[in-house]
Amino acid sequence: MGSTEDLDYPQIIVQYSNGFLISKVMFTACELGVFDLLLESGKPLPSDAIAAGLSASTMGMKRLLDACVGLKLLAVEMTQEGALYRNTEISNVYLTKSSPKSQYHIMMYYSNTVYLCWQYLADAVREGRNQYERAFGVSSKDPFGAMYRSDEEMLKFMAGQNSVWSICGRDVLAAFDLSPFTQIYDLGGDFFNDSIPAAELYILSKILHDWDDDKCKQLLAKVYKACKPGGGVLLVESLLNEDKSGPVETQLYSMNMLVQTEGKERTAAEYSKLLESAGFGMIQVKRTGKLYDAVLGRK
Amino acid sequence: MGSTEDLDYPQIIVQYSNGFLISKVMFTACELGVFDLLLESGKPLPSDAIAAGLSASTMGMKRLLDACVGLKLLAVEMTQEGALYRNTEISNVYLTKSSPKSQYHIMMYYSNTVYLCWQYLADAVREGRNQYERAFGVSSKDPFGAMYRSDEEMLKFMAGQNSVWSICGRDVLAAFDLSPFTQIYDLGGDFFNDSIPAAELYILSKILHDWDDDKCKQLLAKVYKACKPGGGVLLVESLLNEDKSGPVETQLYSMNMLVQTEGKERTAAEYSKLLESAGFGMIQVKRTGKLYDAVLGRK
After folding, report:
1. What is the C-alpha separation between A70 and B255, in angstroms, rounded?
2. Residue A297, Cβ density class (10 Å: 0-12 exposed, 13-18 middle, ≥19 buried)
3. Residue pLDDT, tens place only, A163-221
């Protein structure tokens, strides 16, 4: 940064400017079913066959495929019959609908919901609140009412959450020895209004980041009350550094919490404080080095 | 790519998914005037002073500033009075409005026009045509009528073009010895309908990429007719590799031509063919390694 070379030609600024083009090329290839068709075909295909198979224009599809090659999401082979395209291994595993590690649903949620909300990022920063009203014409006072504004939207969001879990779940669950806990309750649903059953371990996966401190304390107090003695609560969240200087992904997700919810991403100390205020103690923190980290508190 | 590590955790897929978040954080910090305020202040400022100075929420601004730190567009210093933010050198040069190399206008064009059009990338690929009609409700048959649909839009677009020229112009003009040409005409305006004056050198900067082959041939024939003997034409364009396997930036811009125009990015051989079909010869190609390359043809 700041070297003469960077100042002569601002590579990172060009790269950041192109960020949304890259996201949309990948999302669109997923949405049109490019990776699924290539997986099913079992052999490399020319662009016109892919276009025909997906009812797309040959001219548009050819350019999309070439951009995917540039992004290393596809590989191309020049043959006597012309260019033949095939999936890279990473696309087979993560970008096809049928793969157990498919990220297809979270991509569709990003592409068709989050992308639109982020058109209003400047308004979100000015006003300090989410932008569901501007983006979708639904009230932003109840962010989950807005997110779940139709069955289709709710399913998209939930399928998206599952996509993320498929790549981060194992590390998070391996962060601590959870074998002492035999009764585990994965918190979900309308937990501010519904009663919470007694259990030994409560998993709150990406729940607290949706809410402000007051609502988090209210929810944790309710969990503490239901929790059996010796039990605990496992928070699955993306942790900010204590000085909030990074990681950059978590900073970006905290901006997304601003645009879409009433919450924010927090540091390990902030989560510990919330847990302590509800009565939990012996707090342990484990960073996984991936998207989601783990914080364990005991009753 | 394809290593076991990549397959366990798809770093590039996460990175590509976050691309639009990164673009929008940078665009929004520009739009709200963060870099201008910090340049003018001449000293590092706390987040609440920046929020107050820009009439933004303190909570939203703090998160935006931290994300800019993560992206190395700002630097932060922890002091007794709390965190103080300042521009990095690259932000002073490229992201402030007043800098001679400012990219502010192209960013605003990207953020408020291109970003919206790209919401319809899947439709553009399906239909093989630009998406002005869906994005802005204006007819897509005349892409420049659509781009210049208001004086404000036209000024935004032109200021954006100037931003790019300020970082790439020098390399492009230094690509060939242009000193023999004393009468130079920079083609712009309504060149399909207006007459083109006689000159020794015509510069067509990012013009041919907006049009299909037929229109390009038509325009080049008109230029050839006007051109003095011994004169020439200089094309300033971003060149694709001959096998279209890259560069990835040019592939992305070719997708943008699909979404926004009737044109595409081309290879050096494709531009040479267009020039030859209009009568130009002695074609020379110079890649600059930056966004825009140069192709010179002689009459």
Report:
1. 12
2. buried
3. 777 777 788 888 899 888 999 999 988 899 999 999 999 999 999 999 999 999 999 99
Cβ distance B81 to B46 under 8 Å?
A: yes
B90 reaches A (C-beta below 8 A): yes
Q: Angle formed by the axes of helices A268-277 and A213-226, to 10°? A: 50
Give the Cβ contact number of residue A231 at 10 Å: 23
Task: Say if the ipTM goes beyond 0.90.
Answer: yes
| Structure token digits, residue B276 | 């030859």
Beta carbons within 8 Å of A272's beta carbon, 6+ residues apart: A283, A285, A295, A297
SS3 B208: helix
Q: How many Cβ atoms from other residues are within 10 Å of residue A281's Cβ?
A: 11
Which residues of chain A does B13 touch, with a Cβ-Cβ cutoff of 8 Å?
A: 26, 90, 94-95, 103
pLDDT at A165: 75
- C-alpha to C-alpha distance for A279 and A229, rounded to whole angstroms: 12
Crossing angle for the helix pair A58-70 and A34-41, to the nearest 10 degrees: 90
Q: Quick one: CA dihedral A287, A208, B49, B111, positive or negative?
A: positive
- Are A185 and A131 a contacting pair, CB within 8 Å? no
B196: closest CA of chain A, how far (Å): 32
Distance CA B199, CA B187 (A): 11
Host H or E run for residue A228: strand A227-237
User: Do B220 and B278 meet the contact criterion of CB atoms below 8 Å apart?
Assistant: yes
Considering only residues B81 and A4, tell me which one the structure prediction assigns the higher pLDDT: B81
Record: contact B14-A93, CB cut-off 8 A: no
Kindly list the residues from chain B whose CB atom is less than 8 angstroms away from the CB atom of residue A59. 128, 258
Please count the CA atoms within 13 angstroms of the CA of B35 that sit on its side-chain side.
Answer: 28
Residues B21, A55: C-beta atoms closer than 8 Å: no
Domains and CATH numbers, chain A: 4-94 (1.10.10.10), 104-298 (3.40.50.150)
Distance (Å, whole) CA A173 – CA B116: 40
How do strand A227-237 and strand A293-298 relate by DSSP bridges? Answer: antiparallel
Note the pLDDT of residue A86: 98
Distance CA A275, CA A298 (A): 9
Cβ proximity of A17 and A82 under 8 Å: no
Q: For residue A85, what pLDDT is reported? A: 98
Residue burial B18-47, b: 16+ Cβ < 10 Å; e: rest: bbbbbbbbbbbbbbbbbbbbbbeeeebbbb
Give the predicted TM-score (pTM) of the model: 0.93
Instruction: Closest CB to B22: pick one of A16, A127, A245.
Output: A16
Instruction: Give the pLDDT of residue B151.
Output: 76
Cα separation, B111 vs A63, whole angstroms: 23
A–B interface: beta-carbon pairs under 8 A: 246
> What is the residue whose two structure tokens read 């400017």?
A17
pLDDT digits (tens, 9 = 90+) for B5-54: 567 778 899 999 999 999 999 999 999 999 999 999 999 999 999 999 99
pLDDT of residue B3: 45
Q: What is the CA radius of gyration of chain A?
A: 22
